[in-house]
């Protein structure tokens, strides 16, 4: 059971995001962002985790700086619109953790529990993404978004190389996926919300696996002795789906994005996104190859020994979530 205070702060966090999204003025959006920030800080402070205080302080300082930039840009609105919108966009990219303002994101992720990382990677991105979508009316703003997306693609891909901590790997993966969402945001709202929905579903399933296995590093993941088929299969399938490898579910939003970007002649951003996707697949495979080699005997000797832990009942759901992408092309054939 969650404490009543945590449920209250989670509710106000959602209310802050909804206030920012539905506000008709930048002042109302700023109030919603502040309510969201002040609700998230109590959620991530944990006396049992010695790193949570450092993570919460870093998160607060970064978000406070971004809020200050939003207030500054609002005060300059009467003078010039381009400078105002550029400063506002920079502040929102800072709140998102998109490149080149991404360095704080892996450090904050390192100090959070697995359940808290789900909130940071999903819910906390909603309000800034919606606010950025309101700014995509100027060619200058769209060009800055393109630059940030291409930087995020490579910073997220290269940053995840030679990293052993799972939270940092998920952080750099989130930065890489942010590049796809930023490009989708410049096309239309439906595309980025579709991509975000797939990303939130798959990343949450991966984080739930790490939480249920109590794994904090790749070595912890390899040292887990799973005697059931579903936990053994769920890790490689979920990571390959998160990497966007066909025919898993994670490939579906990327496949749709590739088609739309080709239609809009967005060849240069597409090159950056696809080349960075290959790098991210590399560090996912770097995790999976030793995992599969070590746990291969389970398929021949240990299948009769089944584990009935409380989390194992969710494993078939996680596997189905990451395999459902195989059946989506059938819908197009039947239409």
TrEMBL record:
Its EC number is 7.1.1.2. It holds the Pfam family Proton_antipo_M. It is a multi-pass membrane protein. Keywords: Electron transport, Membrane, Mitochondrion, Mitochondrion inner membrane, NAD, Respiratory chain, Translocase, Transmembrane, Transmembrane helix, Transport, Ubiquinone. The chain crosses the membrane at residues 60-79, 85-105, 194-213, 233-256, 268-294, 314-334. GO terms for biological process: mitochondrial electron transport, NADH to ubiquinone. GO terms for cellular component: mitochondrial inner membrane. Residues 81-280 form the NADH:quinone oxidoreductase/Mrp antiporter transmembrane domain. InterPro entries: Complex_I_Subunit_2 (IPR050175), NADH_UbQ_OxRdtase_chain2 (IPR003917), ND/Mrp_TM (IPR001750). It comes from the Eukaryota. It is an enzyme of class 7 (translocase). Its main location: mitochondrion. It is found in: Mitochondrion inner membrane. The keyword NAD applies. It catalyses: a ubiquinone + NADH + 5 H(+)(in) = a ubiquinol + NAD(+) + 4 H(+)(out). One of its GO terms (molecular function) is NADH dehydrogenase (ubiquinone) activity. Core subunit of the mitochondrial membrane respiratory chain NADH dehydrogenase (Complex I) which catalyzes electron transfer from NADH through the respiratory chain, using ubiquinone as an electron acceptor. Essential for the catalytic activity and assembly of complex I. Core subunit of the mitochondrial membrane respiratory chain NADH dehydrogenase (Complex I) that is believed to belong to the minimal assembly required for catalysis. Complex I functions in the transfer of electrons from NADH to the respiratory chain. The immediate electron acceptor for the enzyme is believed to be ubiquinone. Belongs to the complex I subunit 2 family. This is NADH-ubiquinone oxidoreductase chain 2. The gene is ND2.
């Amino acid at each position: 059971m969650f404490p009543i205070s945590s449920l209250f702060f989670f509710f106000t966090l959602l209310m802050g995001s909804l206030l920012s999204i539905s506000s008709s003025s930048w002042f109302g959006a700023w109030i919603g962002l502040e309510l969201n920030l002040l609700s998230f800080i109590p959620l991530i402070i944990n006396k049992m985790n010695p790193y949570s205080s450092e993570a919460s302080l870093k998160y607060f300082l970064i978000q406070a700086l971004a809020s200050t930039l939003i207030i500054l840009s609002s005060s300059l609105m009467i003078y010039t619109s381009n400078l105002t919108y550029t400063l506002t966009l920079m502040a929102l990219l800072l709140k998102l953790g998109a490149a080149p303002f991404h360095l704080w994101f892996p450090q904050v992720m390192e100090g959070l529990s697995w359940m808290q990382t789900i909130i940071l990677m999903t819910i906390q991105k909603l309000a800034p993404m919606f606010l950025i979508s309101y700014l995509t009316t100027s060619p200058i703003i769209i060009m800055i978004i393109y630059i940030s997306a291409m930087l995020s693609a490579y910073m997220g891909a290269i940053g995840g190389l030679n990293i052993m901590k799972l939270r940092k790997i998920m952080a750099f993966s989130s930065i890489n996926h942010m590049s796809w969402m930023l490009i989708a945001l410049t096309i239309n709202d439906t595309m980025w919300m579709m991509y975000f929905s797939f990303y939130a579903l798959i990343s949450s399933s991966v984080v739930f696996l790490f939480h249920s296995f109590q794994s904090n590093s790749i070595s912890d993941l390899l040292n887990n002795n799973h005697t059931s088929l579903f936990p053994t299969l769920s890790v490689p399938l979920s990571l390959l789906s998160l990497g966007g490898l066909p025919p898993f579910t994670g490939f579906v939003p990327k496949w749709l994005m590739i088609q739309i970007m080709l239609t809009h002649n967005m060849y240069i951003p597409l090159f950056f996104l696809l080349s960075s996707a290959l790098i991210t697949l590399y560090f996912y495979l770097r995790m999976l190859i030793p995992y599969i080699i070590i746990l291969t005997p389970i398929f021949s000797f240990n299948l009769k020994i089944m584990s009935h832990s409380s989390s194992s009942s969710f494993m078939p759901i996680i596997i189905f979530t990451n395999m459902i992408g195989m059946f989506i092309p059938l819908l197009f054939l039947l239409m």
